[in-house]
């Protein structure tokens, strides 16, 4: 009689969804949120990746030399996670000195025993406006006001010049009439 032993592995996959985070140009840091249950086992691993423009590792825990070599150079020294994440379940990633190229999707993957938690965060990088919209509107209105005043002054001076020319012509005619009548 042959006895068959089979092992069953159950893989649980949980996708929490997609969150959006906005960061303004010039910010010191931004937190990409990702949470799981507290009191994680010691063998838990966390990967932060970007699927676009090409798949790349942003941060990996545990950060072995193999993982460090795989980390994208643009993120070296700019990422960190909560050191106490095994106890708290907070596997959020802090990205220091965010820049325009950081805009896009990030995927947080937590491997805990046979469970896998995957969460997506979309980072929106917002550039500062040179002028607030109200200042731009005010500037346009001021320019229009200056143009209207200049046009009004130009019209006024043209009328004054015409009146002066007519006055001079009338004085010359009167002077000629006086001269002619005195002869």
TrEMBL record:
The chain crosses the membrane at residues 134-157. SUPFAM superfamilies: Immunoglobulin. GO terms for cellular component: external side of plasma membrane. One of its GO terms (biological process) is negative regulation of T cell proliferation. Gene3D superfamilies: Immunoglobulins. Residues 7-124 form the Ig-like domain. Pfam families: V-set. It is a single-pass type I membrane protein. This is Ig-like domain-containing protein. It is found in: Cell membrane. Its main location: membrane. Keywords: Cell membrane, Disulfide bond, Glycoprotein, Immunoglobulin domain, Membrane, Receptor, Signal, Transmembrane, Transmembrane helix.
């Amino acid at each position: 009689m042959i006895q068959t032993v089979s092992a069953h592995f159950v893989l649980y996959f949980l996708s929490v969804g997609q969150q959006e985070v906005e960061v303004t140009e010039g910010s010191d840091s931004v937190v990409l949120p990702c949470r799981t249950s507290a009191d994680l086992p010691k063998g838990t691993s966390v990967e932060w990746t970007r699927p676009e423009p090409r798949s790349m590792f942003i941060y990996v825990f545990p950060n072995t030399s193999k993982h460090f070599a795989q980390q994208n150079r643009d993120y070296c020294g700019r990422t960190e996670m909560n050191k106490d994440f095994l106890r708290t379940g907070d596997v959020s990633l802090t990205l220091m000195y965010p820049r325009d190229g950081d805009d896009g999707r990030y995927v947080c993957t937590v491997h805990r025993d046979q469970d896998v938690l995957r969460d997506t965060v979309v980072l929106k990088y917002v550039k500062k406006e040179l002028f607030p919209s109200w200042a731009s509107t005010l500037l346009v209105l001021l320019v229009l006001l200056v143009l209207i005043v200049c046009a009004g002054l130009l019209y006024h001076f043209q009328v004054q010049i015409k009146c002066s020319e007519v006055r001079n012509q009338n004085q010359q005619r009167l002077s000629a009439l006086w001269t002619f009548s005195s002869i």
